[in-house]
Amino acid sequence: MSKIGFTDEERALVAIYARRRLSVAGELSNFAAWYGPIFAFAAYGVLARDHIATDLAPACVFAVTLWAVSSQIGQRRKAQAIFAKVDAFERQGPAE
Known about the structure:
Layout: H1 8-19, H2 24-48, H3 51-92
Helix pairs in contact: 1-3, 2-3
C-alpha cells in the first residue's frame, strides 16, 4: 500500500499512464489496427458484391466499439478512484 493508499491495480494504472507518450499518430494507428481490417472486409464485400460481408462488417464495427467503450468505462472507474485518493491526500496537507 502506498502513502496515498493506492491498490496494486491502481498503482499499475498510474505507472502505465506515467510512462505512456501520447501522440495523434499513435492513437490513430491504434484505431486503424482495430477498424482497418473491418473496413477492408467491408470494401471486399462491396467490390465482390458479397452481401454477407457487407452485412457482417457493420456488426463487427458495433462489437469492437462496444468492447472499446466497456474497456474505457473500466479504466475510467480506476482513474476516478486514483484521482479521489490523490485529492484526499492533497487536502490533508504535508505530513509533520
